[in-house]
Write a structure and sequence with these properties.
The complex is a heterodimer. By secondary structure, chain A is mainly β. Chain A is built from one helix and six strands; from the N terminus they run βββαβββ. Chain A has a single domain, classed as Folate-binding superfamily (Folate-binding fold). Chain B has two domains: about 200 residues, FAD/NAD(P)-binding domain (3-Layer(bba) Sandwich), CATH 3.50.50.60; about 150 residues, 2-Layer Sandwich (D-Amino Acid Oxidase, Chain A, domain 2). The chains are: A mainly beta, B alpha+beta. The structure holds flavin-adenine dinucleotide and zinc ion (ZN).
Chain lengths: ~80, ~400
């Protein structure tokens, strides 16, 4: 991925940003210990569209939400 | 061994995919092929198929920067990688193939007080656990690698280094081919251009795999799928501690041979070595966002090249020839995952991230032993998937910074 568009600052190269994962624990996991384990260590690792947070580190220093296709790095 | 006594690699491809094998290995990278090789050569288990969606070595095993070393950050890892380093030393003799293995010595340079402390600790820990590493000062660094600018371009002064004399490199494709040939000569079938599309599951048991070319039943299925493991594992409802991140690298044009050591710096975040062809091969850290995109970026190239120049100013005269990326299977503790999955009949070797080329022989040897005996070998027992539930992760990020 080369560019992201910050809602405040506009289009910038990805090096300006920090990636932030939104942990997704499947609802089918109900046992509290298993949910803790999943939150701590397991990853959905989406292949395709991924909803994620990005922080504009070298800019406005605000978080925003991006939907990105992880197979092409295209912002959807 | 050398190029003058080489003969053509004998790779024999089967044309028919059978519907049943004792062992089916998913992924024809180094780890899949090494497991097949040791199954056939050490344990006489030959009814084995390796299923590869592209060509062998088309994943990270043919994209890496080929650094082989054993100096890691936790005792369990040092023991494991030391075993692998020793197997690599004997791999030419064992396979009869020239893999261009070359001992070069690895310098891990420190530029700050903090960095010095880290390199001293690295040397002490690895010395204690048998992966020969010593702490050295700038004079010795200069003797080992005169190309390093001890002033670090004025900003990154060279204050000391941990030195790992057994650090080595080997030609990655040749390692893949040597293992594939050895496995094939002993009866293993390697099927290229065959994508795994599903797992056959019955209750808690995996009984085989589905491929584009038909279904296969298997006594044991082992996933060795690099950065693509998540999709296949999810077909058995299995969640893994894996996130796939691109890792990039690049090479320069050919330069006169002379950069003999492997040079690394955690603080500058890059490492460099010279290939047999004379190219300078440079790598750094993973891209921060998870991705399956193989696209490489100018941002990486310019920042990594700039950092490398601070330590190796002669690079300024060279040109960039090629740049590429691989998709790495990263774990939260920066250590690999080997062993059972909690699904009967399904094993996994993953989490090889940015560091798994050096682990190919020992990883394959241990997984073959696990398949043959049904018992988790002592060497890899700490690396099981169950370590997370038992709250015993093997945190070793400091060893991954430079592959
Ligand atoms: C740029 C870069 C530099 C690196 N540098 C080093 C280094 O210096 N030292 C080091 O020790 N390590 C290094 N590594 C890491 C090392 O390359 C890997 O850890 C190692 O090659 C992993 O081997 P593998 O067999 O597990 O995976 P891979 O070699 O990736 O093999 C997995 C195989 O599975 C196949 N596959 C995927 N999906 C399917 C499917 N559905 N069906 C069938 N087949 C499938 C792929 O095509 C691939 O061939 C580096 C990695 C990269 C990307
Ligand atoms: Zn902004």
């Amino acid at each position: 991925m080369l560019y992201l568009t910050c809602p405040n600052c506009g289009r910038r190269t990805v090096e300006e940003f920090r990636y932030g994962e939104i942990p997704t624990i499947p609802e089918s996991i109900t046992d509290p210990d298993a949910r803790d384990l999943d939150r701590g260590f397991m990853r959905t690792n989406p292949f395709g569209p991924s909803v994620e947070r990005w922080f504009h580190d070298y800019g406005c220093r605000r978080w925003f939400t991006v939907t990105r296709d992880t197979t092409t790095d295209e912002v959807l | 061994m050398n190029e003058f006594v080489e003969s053509r690699v004998r790779l024999t491809w089967p044309d028919r995919l059978r519907s049943e094998y004792d062992v089916v290995i998913l992924g024809g990278g180094g780890h899949g092929l090494a497991t097949a090789y040791y199954l056939a050569t050490r344990h006489g288990i030959r009814d084995v198929a390796v299923i590869e969606r592209g060509y062998i070595g088309s994943g990270n095993s043919g994209r890496n920067t080929t650094v082989i070393r054993a100096n890691y950050g936790v005792p369990e890892a040092i023991r494991f990688y030391q075993r692998s380093l020793e197997l690599f030393q004997g791999l030419e003799e064992e396979t009869g193939r020239w893999i261009m293995h070359k001992e070069k010595g690895l310098l891990w340079i420190a530029h700050t007080e903090m960095g010095l402390r880290a390199e001293r600790a690295r040397a002490a820990l690895n010395h204690a656990y048998g992966a020969e590493t010593v702490f050295i000062g700038p004079d010795e660094i200069n003797e080992i690698c005169p190309q390093i600018d001890l002033a670090g371009g004025g900003r990154y002064p060279v204050m000391g280094a941990s030195y790992h004399p057994r650090g080595a490199t080997a030609r990655h494709d040749r390692v893949v081919w040597a293992l594939a040939e050895g496995a094939m000569q002993n009866g293993v079938e390697v099927h290229q251009n065959t994508t795994v599309t599903g797992l056959k599951v019955s209750g808690d048991r995996v009984t085989g795999v589905k491929t584009e070319r038909g279904d296969i039943s298997a006594g044991v299925v082992m996933m060795a799928l690099g950065g693509q493991v998540t999709m296949v594992a999810s077909m058995a409802g299995l969640r893994l501690p894996i996130r796939s991140h691109p890792l990039q690298a690049f090479v320069t044009n050919h330069y006169q041979p002379g950069l003999d050591a492997i040079v690394a710096s955690t603080e500058l975040l890059f490492y460099a070595s010279q290939t047999a062809r004379g190219e300078i091969l440079i790598g750094a850290e993973i891209d921060r966002q998870p991705s399956y995109s193989y696209r490489s970026s100018y941002g990486f190239l310019s920042s990594c090249a700039g950092r490398a120049l601070a330590l190796l100013p002669f690079l300024a005269d060279l040109r960039v020839l090629r740049q590429w990326a691989g998709i790495c299977d990263m774990t939260p503790d920066y250590s690999p995952v080997m062993g059972p999955t909690g699904r009967e009949g399904l094993l996994v070797t993953t989490g090889w991230g940015t560091w798994g080329f050096k682990a190919i022989p020992a990883g394959g040897e241990a997984m073959a032993q696990l398949i043959a005996t049904g018992e988790m070998p002592e060497l890899i027992a700490p690396f099981g998937l169950d370590r997370f539930a038992r709250d015993l992760p093997l945190s070793d990020r400091g060893s991954a910074g430079t592959q």
